[in-house]
Design goal:
Layout (H helix, E strand, L loop, with lengths): L1 E4 L2 E6 L4 E6 L4 E6 L6 E7 L9 H8 L9 E3 L5 E8 L13 H8 L7 H8 L14 E3 L2 E4 L5 E4 L8 E6 L3 E7 L15 E5 L4
Antiparallel strand pairs: 1-2, 2-13, 3-12, 4-11, 4-13, 5-8, 5-12, 6-7, 7-11, 9-10
Bound molecules: zinc ion (ZN).
The site of zinc ion (ZN) has 7 residues, from loops.
């Protein structure tokens, strides 16, 4: 993490890896697609009690939608507002699909020893005592999924371009982790894996 100004911290999430960080209640954090076409998986926990965590399913019900927009609040598994979307330059994100893990690459692609978002999260959350079984389904920032007329789940190419970003305001003290998804075997991840930038503490 590096300080880039008064109360502003920057974290570069290297392609295929994850980084974890704390965000205070009222602070914002921005997730930026540095080169374009990169998915960033996000998980978040209540810093005071990691049993409370970001929940895609509770958020979908609260919003009555499979999508979230500026002004929406994402919910925890205790149905409380956890973070608010305050800026979004893309508008296509996913909260239906689980994070990739070792089994995704083995079962669906026959590839062993591939990096994965779940293993990435497990690695970076060690300092907070958070283990794999506690890791919730992620928000897949910049992932472009859709439901077709027959109810089918469709993966579409990522639409984010270099510099596209989404900004959240923390509504409680948070421990967050962002993974620059290492998926390189289907169209959802774009043609190559690239870096993600997280900027914390900008007041908008
Ligand atoms: Zn992934």
């Amino acid at each position: 993490m590096r300080s880039v100004g008064k109360d502003i911290r920057e974290i570069l999430v290297p392609a295929g890896y994850a980084r974890a960080f704390e965000v205070g209640k009222g602070e914002t954090f921005t997730v930026t697609d540095v080169e374009g076409g990169q998915i960033a998986d996000l998980v978040a926990f209540n810093a005071l009690d990691p049993a409370e965590k970001l929940s895609s399913s509770h958020t979908r019900l609260a919003l009555h939608s499979i999508r979230f927009r500026v002004g929406d609040s994402l919910r925890t598994n205790l149905r409380r507002p956890m973070m608010e979307i305050i800026e979004d330059t893309v508008g296509t994100h996913d909260m239906l699909i689980p994070a990739c893990d070792e089994q995704r690459y083995i079962v669906d692609y026959g590839v062993k020893d591939h990096r994965s978002c779940v293993a990435n999260f497990e690695e970076v959350l060690v300092p907070w005592g958070i283990v794999r079984e506690q890791i919730p389904d992620p928000l897949n920032i910049f992932e472009n999924s859709a439901i077709d007329a027959n109810g089918g789940l469709v993966n579409l190419p990522v639409e984010s371009k270099a510099g596209d970003h989404i900004t959240f305001r923390a509504l409680m003290d948070l421990v967050c982790a962002v993974s620059a998804c290492p998926m390189d075997l289907n169209i959802t991840g774009g043609e190559r894996i690239t870096d993600i930038l997280v900027t914390i503490g900008i007041n908008l």
